[in-house]
Amino acid sequence: MNEQSARQPGHGIVVRAETPADAFAREAILDRAMAPNWRRKASNRLRRGRRPSEGLAFVATDEAGAIVGTVRLWDIAAGEGGPVALLLGPLAVDPALKSAGIGAALMRHAVAEAGRLGHRAILLVGDAPYYARFGFSAARTGRLAMPGPYERERLLALELAEGALDGVRGTLVATGRKQKPAPASEGRARAA
Questions:
Q1: SS3 label, residue 179
Q2: For residue 3, what pLDDT is reported?
């Protein structure tokens, strides 16, 4: 087991770093697992045109090597001029394998890697009962906002370093690396 992959005991599931070759399968998982309008959500505004944080994009694969889950973390500022943080999402698992612990394995791996890489806080928009088991809560997000419509009680945070979100306020801002434009021939192929 290396720093970029982890076998999940009893599941035959491996969590590993995402590669460019995973793009099609990753998108297919997202399309099957997410609500039809997921790309229009406020959190996606912070991801649009950006690349995931360096070393923080993961997929889960089954014993045959098929991608069955995905999670990414993105660089943001916690409010205008606020401290750097990460935005987690989307987390998605093949609907046929829901409740098999794959989402939890992806979450544990993503949070551990973010901490190992020295990040101090992770934010996400999600269901508090699910994410509370990983340490996320709305306790530190009351003065923060998403850039667009969202449900305030679903903006959650986890401090990886105590006090990382002290005094934060304002709207989350994307700070990550910009995506490279796709070559013209690739764009035409997608449109077909």
A1: coil
A2: 40
Position 7: which residue type? Answer: R
| Number of separate domains in the chain | 1
**Residue 191 included in any domain:** no
The three-class DSSP label of residue 125 is strand
What residue ranges in 10-161 does DSSP mark as E strands?
A: 13-17, 57-61, 67-77, 84-88, 92-93, 121-125, 144-145, 155-159
For 40, the enclosing helix (H) or strand (E) is none
Q: What is the CATH number of the domain that holds 32?
A: 3.40.630.30
Has residue 164 been placed in a domain?
yes
In this predicted structure, the answer to whether residue 191 has a pLDDT above a threshold of 50 is no
pLDDT in tens, 86-108: 999 999 999 999 889 999 999 99
How far apart CA 54 and CA 43 sit, in angstroms, is: 19
Cα gap 76→86, rounded to integer Å: 6
Asked whether residue 43 is assigned to any structural domain, the reply reads yes
